[in-house]
Amino acid sequence: MEKLRNLASDIEKVSEEYSGLTWVQFTTGFDFGIDKKYEEMMSYYTSKENFEYVRKIFDRNNLGEFEKREAELMFKSFEPFHLSDEVNKLNMEISSLTNKLSGVLNTHRSTINGVEMSSVELAQIMRNSDDESKRKEAYFARTQVNKPLFDAGFAELINLRKEYAKLRGFDTFVDLQLDANELDSNIFSSWKDELHEMVPAMNEKRSEMAGIYLGKNEVMPWDEAYLVSKIAPSLNKKVDMTEFYQVLRDFYKKFGFDLDKYNITYDIFPRKNKSEWGYNFPIAVEKDARVLANVKNEYNEYGVLLHETGHGVHHFLQKREEMILNQGISGIITEGIANLFGSFLYDESFFSRFFTDNKIKEELKRYEDYSKVNSLRAIPSIMFDQDLYRTDIKTLDDINDLAFKTTKDYLGVDRFGDQYPWGFRIHHTTHPIYLHNYFMGDVTSELLKKSFKDKFGVEKVSEKPMEFGNFLYEQVIKPSGKYKYAELVKKISGKEFSLECMK
User: Fold this and answer.
1) In a designed cystine with 342, which of 54, 122, 164, 307 is the match (CB 3.0 to 4.6 A)?
2) Of 82, 101, 131, which one is at a domain's C-terminal end?
3) Is residue 267 part of a domain?
4) E strands within 85-134?
5) pTM for the full model?
6) Distance CA 31, CA 200 (A)
7) How many structural domains are present in the chain?
8) Which of 66, 82, 98 represents a domain boundary (last residue)?
């Protein structure tokens, strides 16, 4: 086992270098050899000698529970590279094309009337403008990246991934990804029927809010963020983001997590050639984590900083000597922890630093009631992400038609434009079949909080922050790589995952 862990350590070192190069590309637009470093990392996996040793450990019958888990995780990571040369060649092609398309996304900027606009500026127009035509213009400006992304090879990337899945023995790329993440391939099979049962109540609430705040009976996609701003206008309060680290440090310390002891690098202000999304780059466990974000001095933007810092804390609380087990940490758990901290944006334990009156409490109660119903609208995006791999994609229109069809099938929403803003969501390019982790992470977060509140007899976890921080570490973070997602959540909460948890 020691030799197995040393092998994992050698791979980890190259992976750290690869992650560092990816950070540079996402923050500057420069590629200093990502493909070459990826090839170096893959050479460990394609080595027949390495695989035979991993297989030998995997086949042993005298391993302890967690040693068996380590052997299984290593075997699953090596096995795909020993099926055929064709599989390995295709894997390299996919990696190279993904890197190329990442460059397109990271350097693209939308324009309105010839003026270049950052994603932050577009978001602020959609949140703050009382002019619906301007909100609509900003919303559809996001579609401008669709064609450059498609022309650079997006459909080819989708089809390469489909081919790769077939060569790996899976019916679809979705099945392959779910298997890699230790999820049942049928986990989403009932979602459409369950959602259809909830849509009438959702639409009734949306219509009610539209009547009160928008003066009409429906909420269009370009109205979504604006409606939230009308329900809770304090979320748009101007704040000085240059003080972000002190704010985050003071808050996380309440839970027993001292950011000063972690090496988290932040790059949070927009600039040319920098990715417009928010990420945590887990460069080296216990040593180096980096947060990329794009903010422009509004209170609501602390949500992404709380979320990404949650990732960073989780990363630093993992153990380097458990690097194999760390490979088994579910993306749902990872996003659940980050979403949990992001949700404190709406909790007095965080917002009391910025607001001294009680108005925001009333606003956020209204927002909470609305968002709980509205959160299920994330499901069509999740299913579109999957249906890209179940549909014959040849043209840009094929993708737009699929996006509108998926929205119609799940929510009953009619087509509202020529193009759908799908390309700007970088996950479709770089992290396919991942979006479910955010939604399921929210459900998991609620299960964790309920479990803690029941155990400690409190109404909110922030009433006992130190105890909650300890609970989170001992019950979730510490064992997070030792069990599959379903096992861990059942172990903590005693419940199975279900959309019912969102009601």
Assistant:
1) 307
2) 82
3) no
4) 110-112, 115-117
5) 0.91
6) 48
7) 2
8) 82
* Alpha-carbon gap, residue 95 to 475, rounded angstroms: 35
Identify the domain containing residue 4 by its residue range: 1-82
Distance separating alpha carbons of residues 434 and 424, to the nearest angstrom: 15
Reported for 487-493, long-range contacts at CB under 8 A and 24+ positions apart, including other chains, are 488/330, 488/333, 489/444, 489/447, 492/447, 492/448, 492/451, 493/447, 493/448, 493/450, 493/451
SS3 75: helix
Q: How many of the other CB atoms lie within 10 Å of CB of 153?
A: 16
Domain membership flag for residue 280: no
Q: Is 421 helix (H, G, I), strand (E, B) or coil?
A: coil
The whole-angstrom separation of Cα 352 and Cα 387 is 43
DSSP 238: B
CA–CA separation, 273 and 102 (whole Å) = 11
Under DSSP, the state recorded for 298 is: B
**CATH number of the domain bearing residue 216:** 1.10.1370.10
d(CA 422, CA 95): 21
Question: Residue 321's CB: how many other CB atoms inside 10 A?
Answer: 12
The tens digit of pLDDT for each residue in 314-372 reads 999 999 999 999 999 999 999 999 999 999 999 999 999 999 888 899 999 899 889 88
